[in-house]
Amino acid sequence: MQRVQPQDFERVLSSMCTKPHPAARDAAERFLATNPGDPGTYETIAELERKAVEMLGTITGLPSAEGYVTSGGTEANIQAVRIARNRAATDQPNVVAPESAHFSFNKAADLLNVELRTAPTDADHRADMAAVKELVDDDTVAVVGVAGSTEYGRVDPIPAMADLAADHDAICHVDAAWGGFVLPFTDHRWHFGHADVDTLTIDPHKMGQAAVPAGGLVTHSTELLDELAVDTPYLESKSQATLTGTRSGAGVASAVAAMEELWPVGYREQYHESMENAEWLAEELAARGHDVVAPDLPIVAADMTSPVTEDLRQRGWRISKTGAGEMRIVCMPHVTKSMLRSFVADLDWY
Ligand code: 0PR
Protein backbone atom coordinates (compact mmCIF):
# COMPACT_ATOMS: atom_id res chain seq x y z
CA MET A 1 0.00 0.00 0.00
CA GLN A 2 1.09 3.54 -0.69
CA ARG A 3 1.86 5.62 2.36
CA VAL A 4 -1.59 7.18 2.53
CA GLN A 5 -1.94 9.97 5.03
CA PRO A 6 -5.06 10.73 7.07
CA GLN A 7 -6.86 14.05 6.71
CA ASP A 8 -5.24 16.96 8.50
CA PHE A 9 -7.22 18.94 11.02
CA GLU A 10 -6.76 22.26 9.22
CA ARG A 11 -10.44 22.62 8.28
CA VAL A 12 -12.17 20.18 10.63
CA LEU A 13 -14.77 22.12 12.62
CA SER A 14 -17.41 19.48 13.29
CA SER A 15 -15.56 16.61 14.91
CA MET A 16 -15.45 15.58 18.52
CA CYS A 17 -12.11 13.88 17.90
CA THR A 18 -8.93 15.87 17.80
CA LYS A 19 -5.17 15.60 17.35
CA PRO A 20 -3.91 13.41 20.17
CA HIS A 21 -1.43 14.98 22.54
CA PRO A 22 2.12 13.95 21.44
CA ALA A 23 2.59 11.90 24.62
CA ALA A 24 -0.72 10.14 23.92
CA ARG A 25 0.31 9.37 20.34
CA ASP A 26 3.62 7.97 21.54
CA ALA A 27 1.99 5.81 24.22
CA ALA A 28 -0.57 4.50 21.72
CA GLU A 29 2.19 3.37 19.36
CA ARG A 30 4.06 1.59 22.14
CA PHE A 31 1.00 -0.34 23.28
CA LEU A 32 -0.44 -1.24 19.87
CA ALA A 33 -0.12 -4.97 20.39
CA THR A 34 -1.50 -5.24 23.91
CA ASN A 35 -4.91 -6.37 25.07
CA PRO A 36 -6.31 -5.14 28.37
CA GLY A 37 -9.08 -7.72 27.86
CA ASP A 38 -6.57 -10.36 28.97
CA PRO A 39 -5.03 -8.90 32.13
CA GLY A 40 -3.38 -12.20 33.04
CA THR A 41 -1.17 -11.99 29.95
CA TYR A 42 -0.89 -8.22 29.42
CA GLU A 43 -0.21 -7.12 32.96
CA THR A 44 1.32 -3.73 32.23
CA ILE A 45 -1.62 -2.48 30.25
CA ALA A 46 -4.02 -3.91 32.85
CA GLU A 47 -2.17 -1.89 35.47
CA LEU A 48 -2.38 1.20 33.26
CA GLU A 49 -6.12 0.69 32.90
CA ARG A 50 -6.50 0.79 36.68
CA LYS A 51 -4.55 4.02 36.60
CA ALA A 52 -6.83 5.39 33.87
CA VAL A 53 -9.95 4.60 35.91
CA GLU A 54 -8.40 6.16 39.00
CA MET A 55 -7.68 9.35 37.07
CA LEU A 56 -11.13 9.42 35.52
CA GLY A 57 -12.45 9.09 39.08
CA THR A 58 -10.37 12.07 40.19
CA ILE A 59 -11.76 14.15 37.32
CA THR A 60 -15.36 13.13 38.10
CA GLY A 61 -15.29 13.54 41.88
CA LEU A 62 -14.94 9.88 42.80
CA PRO A 63 -12.07 8.94 45.14
CA SER A 64 -12.31 5.17 44.54
CA ALA A 65 -13.67 4.69 41.08
CA GLU A 66 -14.64 1.46 39.38
CA GLY A 67 -15.00 1.09 35.63
CA TYR A 68 -12.97 0.57 32.52
CA VAL A 69 -11.74 2.16 29.31
CA THR A 70 -14.39 1.54 26.66
CA SER A 71 -14.24 1.78 22.89
CA GLY A 72 -16.07 5.11 23.19
CA GLY A 73 -19.12 6.85 24.52
CA THR A 74 -21.47 4.48 22.73
CA GLU A 75 -20.18 1.43 24.57
CA ALA A 76 -20.13 3.26 27.91
CA ASN A 77 -23.74 4.37 27.47
CA ILE A 78 -24.87 0.90 26.41
CA GLN A 79 -23.15 -0.63 29.42
CA ALA A 80 -24.68 1.90 31.80
CA VAL A 81 -28.16 1.03 30.53
CA ARG A 82 -27.26 -2.64 30.86
CA ILE A 83 -26.27 -2.14 34.51
CA ALA A 84 -29.54 -0.34 35.15
CA ARG A 85 -31.61 -3.03 33.49
CA ASN A 86 -29.82 -5.94 35.14
CA ARG A 87 -30.10 -4.64 38.70
CA ALA A 88 -33.79 -3.84 38.44
CA ALA A 89 -36.61 -6.27 39.15
CA THR A 90 -39.00 -5.20 36.41
CA ASP A 91 -39.44 -7.13 33.18
CA GLN A 92 -40.66 -4.01 31.36
CA PRO A 93 -37.76 -1.66 31.95
CA ASN A 94 -37.68 1.88 30.65
CA VAL A 95 -34.99 4.54 30.57
CA VAL A 96 -35.86 8.23 30.70
CA ALA A 97 -33.58 10.71 28.92
CA PRO A 98 -33.91 14.16 27.37
CA GLU A 99 -34.36 14.28 23.61
CA SER A 100 -30.88 15.80 23.44
CA ALA A 101 -29.38 12.46 24.51
CA HIS A 102 -26.95 10.92 22.02
CA PHE A 103 -28.29 8.27 19.64
CA SER A 104 -26.20 5.64 21.39
CA PHE A 105 -29.12 5.39 23.85
CA ASN A 106 -31.33 4.29 20.96
CA LYS A 107 -28.82 1.55 20.25
CA ALA A 108 -28.79 0.59 23.93
CA ALA A 109 -32.59 0.43 24.05
CA ASP A 110 -32.74 -1.72 20.94
CA LEU A 111 -30.01 -4.11 22.04
CA LEU A 112 -31.21 -4.48 25.60
CA ASN A 113 -34.94 -4.53 25.05
CA VAL A 114 -35.44 -1.45 27.12
CA GLU A 115 -37.97 1.25 26.29
CA LEU A 116 -36.34 4.64 25.74
CA ARG A 117 -38.58 7.52 26.79
CA THR A 118 -37.36 10.93 25.72
CA ALA A 119 -38.47 14.15 27.32
CA PRO A 120 -38.48 17.50 25.52
CA THR A 121 -35.81 20.05 26.31
CA ASP A 122 -36.48 23.59 27.48
CA ALA A 123 -35.88 26.80 25.55
CA ASP A 124 -32.18 26.56 26.41
CA HIS A 125 -31.86 22.96 25.15
CA ARG A 126 -31.62 21.45 28.63
CA ALA A 127 -33.77 18.61 29.97
CA ASP A 128 -37.13 19.93 31.08
CA MET A 129 -37.52 18.47 34.58
CA ALA A 130 -41.31 18.61 34.61
CA ALA A 131 -41.37 16.57 31.39
CA VAL A 132 -38.75 14.13 32.70
CA LYS A 133 -40.78 13.61 35.90
CA GLU A 134 -43.88 12.84 33.91
CA LEU A 135 -42.16 9.99 32.08
CA VAL A 136 -40.67 8.30 35.14
CA ASP A 137 -42.64 5.44 36.71
CA ASP A 138 -42.11 2.23 38.70
CA ASP A 139 -40.52 0.51 35.70
CA THR A 140 -37.90 3.23 35.19
CA VAL A 141 -34.45 1.72 35.66
CA ALA A 142 -32.35 4.78 34.78
CA VAL A 143 -32.67 8.52 34.48
CA VAL A 144 -30.09 9.84 32.03
CA GLY A 145 -28.69 13.35 32.11
CA VAL A 146 -26.33 14.83 29.54
CA ALA A 147 -23.41 16.95 30.70
CA GLY A 148 -22.25 18.58 27.49
CA SER A 149 -24.80 17.72 24.81
CA THR A 150 -23.64 16.73 21.34
CA GLU A 151 -25.39 19.53 19.49
CA TYR A 152 -25.40 22.52 21.84
CA GLY A 153 -22.97 21.61 24.64
CA ARG A 154 -25.67 22.00 27.27
CA VAL A 155 -25.66 20.55 30.79
CA ASP A 156 -28.85 19.04 32.22
CA PRO A 157 -29.92 19.67 35.84
CA ILE A 158 -28.01 16.63 37.09
CA PRO A 159 -28.68 16.98 40.87
CA ALA A 160 -32.45 17.12 40.28
CA MET A 161 -32.23 14.15 37.91
CA ALA A 162 -30.22 12.17 40.44
CA ASP A 163 -32.79 12.89 43.18
CA LEU A 164 -35.58 11.81 40.89
CA ALA A 165 -33.76 8.58 40.04
CA ALA A 166 -33.12 7.81 43.73
CA ASP A 167 -36.80 8.37 44.54
CA HIS A 168 -37.66 5.61 42.08
CA ASP A 169 -34.81 3.26 42.95
CA ALA A 170 -33.43 3.83 39.45
CA ILE A 171 -29.82 4.67 38.67
CA CYS A 172 -28.74 8.10 37.52
CA HIS A 173 -26.42 7.95 34.54
CA VAL A 174 -24.58 11.04 33.32
CA ASP A 175 -23.30 11.22 29.76
CA ALA A 176 -20.26 13.49 29.94
CA ALA A 177 -18.61 11.75 26.98
CA TRP A 178 -17.63 15.04 25.41
CA GLY A 179 -18.02 17.46 28.34
CA GLY A 180 -16.08 15.55 30.98
CA PHE A 181 -12.71 17.18 30.29
CA VAL A 182 -14.02 20.76 30.18
CA LEU A 183 -16.69 20.72 32.89
CA PRO A 184 -14.21 20.59 35.83
CA PHE A 185 -13.33 24.21 35.00
CA THR A 186 -16.91 25.48 35.08
CA ASP A 187 -19.47 26.03 37.84
CA HIS A 188 -21.72 23.25 36.59
CA ARG A 189 -22.87 20.53 38.95
CA TRP A 190 -22.47 17.37 36.94
CA HIS A 191 -20.42 14.65 38.65
CA PHE A 192 -20.31 12.15 41.53
CA GLY A 193 -19.14 14.84 43.93
CA HIS A 194 -22.10 17.10 43.14
CA ALA A 195 -25.01 14.69 43.06
CA ASP A 196 -26.11 11.13 43.69
CA VAL A 197 -24.78 9.93 40.33
CA ASP A 198 -24.32 6.16 39.80
CA THR A 199 -22.63 5.77 36.43
CA LEU A 200 -20.91 8.25 34.15
CA THR A 201 -19.50 8.29 30.63
CA ILE A 202 -16.35 10.35 30.00
CA ASP A 203 -14.27 9.89 26.86
CA PRO A 204 -10.53 10.53 26.78
CA HIS A 205 -10.69 10.33 22.96
CA LYS A 206 -12.77 13.50 22.78
CA MET A 207 -11.74 16.55 24.83
CA GLY A 208 -9.25 14.34 26.71
CA GLN A 209 -6.88 14.43 23.71
CA ALA A 210 -6.16 10.69 23.74
CA ALA A 211 -5.93 8.52 20.64
CA VAL A 212 -9.04 6.73 19.36
CA PRO A 213 -10.40 4.42 20.81
CA ALA A 214 -10.54 5.53 24.43
CA GLY A 215 -13.88 6.05 26.11
CA GLY A 216 -14.66 5.70 29.78
CA LEU A 217 -17.32 4.18 31.99
CA VAL A 218 -17.03 5.11 35.66
CA THR A 219 -19.14 4.01 38.62
CA HIS A 220 -18.94 4.22 42.41
CA SER A 221 -19.41 0.58 43.27
CA THR A 222 -18.12 -2.84 42.32
CA GLU A 223 -21.66 -4.08 42.78
CA LEU A 224 -22.89 -2.02 39.86
CA LEU A 225 -19.97 -3.05 37.68
CA ASP A 226 -20.61 -6.67 38.62
CA GLU A 227 -24.01 -6.42 36.97
CA LEU A 228 -22.01 -6.67 33.74
CA ALA A 229 -19.73 -9.53 34.68
CA VAL A 230 -19.69 -12.79 32.80
CA ASP A 231 -17.53 -15.79 33.71
CA THR A 232 -14.37 -16.28 31.70
CA PRO A 233 -13.42 -19.89 32.40
CA TYR A 234 -10.28 -20.14 30.27
CA LEU A 235 -8.72 -16.75 31.10
CA GLU A 236 -6.67 -16.26 34.21
CA SER A 237 -9.06 -13.55 35.31
CA LYS A 238 -12.34 -15.09 36.42
CA SER A 239 -14.82 -12.63 34.97
CA GLN A 240 -15.14 -9.82 32.47
CA ALA A 241 -17.37 -6.75 32.67
CA THR A 242 -16.48 -5.21 29.32
CA LEU A 243 -18.71 -5.43 26.25
CA THR A 244 -15.91 -6.21 23.82
CA GLY A 245 -13.35 -8.94 24.41
CA THR A 246 -10.03 -8.02 22.87
CA ARG A 247 -9.61 -4.30 23.44
CA SER A 248 -7.23 -1.55 22.44
CA GLY A 249 -4.25 -1.25 24.71
CA ALA A 250 -3.25 1.73 22.58
CA GLY A 251 -6.38 3.56 23.66
CA VAL A 252 -5.82 2.78 27.32
CA ALA A 253 -2.14 3.76 27.33
CA SER A 254 -2.79 6.96 25.42
CA ALA A 255 -5.59 7.91 27.82
CA VAL A 256 -3.23 7.61 30.78
CA ALA A 257 -0.48 9.51 28.97
CA ALA A 258 -2.82 12.36 28.00
CA MET A 259 -4.29 12.66 31.47
CA GLU A 260 -0.87 12.57 33.14
CA GLU A 261 0.31 15.34 30.85
CA LEU A 262 -2.77 17.52 30.96
CA TRP A 263 -4.71 17.05 34.20
CA PRO A 264 -5.46 19.60 35.47
CA VAL A 265 -3.33 22.47 34.15
CA GLY A 266 -3.29 21.62 30.44
CA TYR A 267 -7.00 20.80 30.32
CA ARG A 268 -7.81 24.04 32.13
CA GLU A 269 -5.78 26.06 29.64
CA GLN A 270 -7.44 24.22 26.79
CA TYR A 271 -10.88 24.88 28.22
CA HIS A 272 -10.20 28.62 28.40
CA GLU A 273 -8.74 28.75 24.92
CA SER A 274 -11.58 26.75 23.37
CA MET A 275 -14.19 28.80 25.21
CA GLU A 276 -12.61 32.05 24.09
CA ASN A 277 -12.62 30.80 20.50
CA ALA A 278 -16.25 29.73 20.76
CA GLU A 279 -17.28 33.10 22.16
CA TRP A 280 -15.30 34.92 19.49
CA LEU A 281 -16.94 32.90 16.74
CA ALA A 282 -20.41 33.37 18.25
CA GLU A 283 -19.89 37.14 18.26
CA GLU A 284 -18.60 37.20 14.69
CA LEU A 285 -21.59 35.18 13.47
CA ALA A 286 -24.07 37.28 15.43
CA ALA A 287 -22.50 40.45 14.02
CA ARG A 288 -23.26 39.07 10.56
CA GLY A 289 -26.92 38.73 11.43
CA HIS A 290 -27.08 35.01 12.20
CA ASP A 291 -29.13 33.61 15.04
CA VAL A 292 -26.56 32.06 17.38
CA VAL A 293 -27.09 29.64 20.26
CA ALA A 294 -24.74 31.22 22.81
CA PRO A 295 -22.00 28.76 23.77
CA ASP A 296 -22.02 27.48 27.35
CA LEU A 297 -19.29 24.92 26.63
CA PRO A 298 -17.15 25.30 23.48
CA ILE A 299 -19.77 24.39 20.85
CA VAL A 300 -21.38 27.03 18.65
CA ALA A 301 -24.61 26.50 16.73
CA ALA A 302 -25.91 29.12 14.33
CA ASP A 303 -28.74 29.43 11.88
CA MET A 304 -27.25 29.51 8.38
CA THR A 305 -28.92 28.76 5.13
CA SER A 306 -28.21 25.30 3.74
CA PRO A 307 -26.57 26.47 0.52
CA VAL A 308 -23.96 28.37 2.54
CA THR A 309 -23.21 25.33 4.67
CA GLU A 310 -22.98 23.20 1.53
CA ASP A 311 -20.73 25.69 -0.19
CA LEU A 312 -18.42 25.87 2.81
CA ARG A 313 -18.17 22.09 2.70
CA GLN A 314 -17.16 22.38 -0.94
CA ARG A 315 -14.36 24.69 0.17
CA GLY A 316 -13.10 21.92 2.41
CA TRP A 317 -14.58 23.02 5.72
CA ARG A 318 -15.81 20.06 7.69
CA ILE A 319 -18.92 21.40 9.35
CA SER A 320 -22.04 19.58 10.45
CA LYS A 321 -25.64 20.44 11.16
CA THR A 322 -27.84 20.02 14.20
CA GLY A 323 -31.11 18.09 13.94
CA ALA A 324 -32.83 21.48 13.69
CA GLY A 325 -30.59 22.41 10.75
CA GLU A 326 -28.22 24.90 12.40
CA MET A 327 -24.54 24.86 11.50
CA ARG A 328 -22.60 23.37 14.40
CA ILE A 329 -18.96 24.05 15.22
CA VAL A 330 -17.10 22.20 17.94
CA CYS A 331 -14.10 24.14 19.25
CA MET A 332 -11.83 21.16 19.83
CA PRO A 333 -8.15 21.63 20.75
CA HIS A 334 -7.08 21.60 17.08
CA VAL A 335 -9.50 24.46 16.29
CA THR A 336 -7.42 27.62 16.58
CA LYS A 337 -8.36 31.29 16.35
CA SER A 338 -6.55 31.58 13.03
CA MET A 339 -8.56 28.67 11.60
CA LEU A 340 -11.73 30.38 12.73
CA ARG A 341 -10.55 33.68 11.22
CA SER A 342 -10.08 32.10 7.83
CA PHE A 343 -13.43 30.34 8.18
CA VAL A 344 -15.16 33.65 8.90
CA ALA A 345 -13.28 35.24 5.98
CA ASP A 346 -14.71 32.52 3.72
CA LEU A 347 -18.16 33.22 5.13
CA ASP A 348 -17.80 36.85 4.14
CA TRP A 349 -17.95 35.82 0.50
CA TYR A 350 -21.70 35.48 0.85
N1 0PR B 1 -22.33 10.86 24.12
C1 0PR B 1 -22.18 12.09 23.60
C2 0PR B 1 -22.66 13.26 24.39
C3 0PR B 1 -21.58 12.25 22.35
O1 0PR B 1 -21.46 13.46 21.82
C4 0PR B 1 -21.14 11.11 21.66
C5 0PR B 1 -20.50 11.21 20.30
C6 0PR B 1 -21.31 9.84 22.24
C7 0PR B 1 -21.91 9.75 23.47
C8 0PR B 1 -20.85 8.58 21.55
O2 0PR B 1 -19.48 8.53 21.56
P1 0PR B 1 -18.64 7.61 20.56
O3 0PR B 1 -18.84 8.18 19.20
O4 0PR B 1 -17.25 7.71 21.08
O5 0PR B 1 -19.18 6.24 20.67
N2 0PR B 1 -20.71 12.37 19.60
C9 0PR B 1 -20.25 12.60 18.25
C10 0PR B 1 -21.43 12.53 17.32
O6 0PR B 1 -22.11 11.49 17.27
C11 0PR B 1 -19.23 11.63 17.78
C12 0PR B 1 -18.40 12.13 16.69
C13 0PR B 1 -17.04 12.16 16.85
C14 0PR B 1 -18.90 12.48 15.46
C15 0PR B 1 -16.22 12.55 15.84
C16 0PR B 1 -18.09 12.90 14.42
C17 0PR B 1 -16.74 12.93 14.63
O7 0PR B 1 -15.89 13.31 13.62
O8 0PR B 1 -21.70 13.52 16.66
Give a verbal description of the structure:
- With 350 residues, this protein is of the alpha/beta class.
- The chain is built from eleven helices and 13 strands.
- A hairpin with a 5-residue loop joins strand 10 and strand 11.
- It is globular.
- The mean pLDDT is 96.
- Ligand 0PR binds next to helix 3.
Show the helix and strand layout.
Blueprint: H1 22-30, H2 43-59, E1 66-70, H3 73-87, E2 94-98, H4 104-112, E3 115-119, H5 129-135, E4 140-146, H6 158-167, E5 171-175, E6 199-201, E7 215-219, H7 222-226, E8 230-231, E9 239-240, H8 249-262, H9 265-287, E10 292-293, E11 299-302, H10 306-314, E12 320-321, E13 327-330, H11 337-347
Parallel strand pairs: 2-3, 2-4, 4-5, 5-6
Antiparallel strand pairs: 1-7, 6-7, 8-9, 10-11, 11-13, 12-13
Helix pairs in contact: 1-8, 2-8, 3-4, 9-11
The structure holds ligand 0PR.
Please outline the major beta sheet.
7 strands, mixed
What does the radius of gyration come to? 20 Å
Order of helices and strands: HHEHEHEHEHEEEHEEHHEEHEEH
Form type: globular
Q: Which quaternary structure do these chains form? A: single chain
Q: What is the architecture of the largest domain at the second tier of CATH?
A: 3-Layer(aba) Sandwich
Structural class: alpha/beta
The overall strand count is 13
**Helical run tally:** 11
Ions, cofactors and other ligands present here are:
ligand 0PR
Count of the domains: 2
Q: For the terminal residues, how far apart are their CA atoms?
A: 42 Å
Q: Helix amount, in percent?
A: 25-40%
Average pLDDT: 96
| CATH homology superfamily of the largest domain | Type I PLP-dependent aspartate aminotransferase-like (Major domain)
Poorly predicted runs of 5 or more residues? none
At the third CATH level, what is the topology name of the largest domain? Aspartate Aminotransferase, domain 2
Strand order of the largest sheet: 1-7-6-5-4-2-3
**Can you tell me the CATH class of the largest domain?**
Alpha Beta
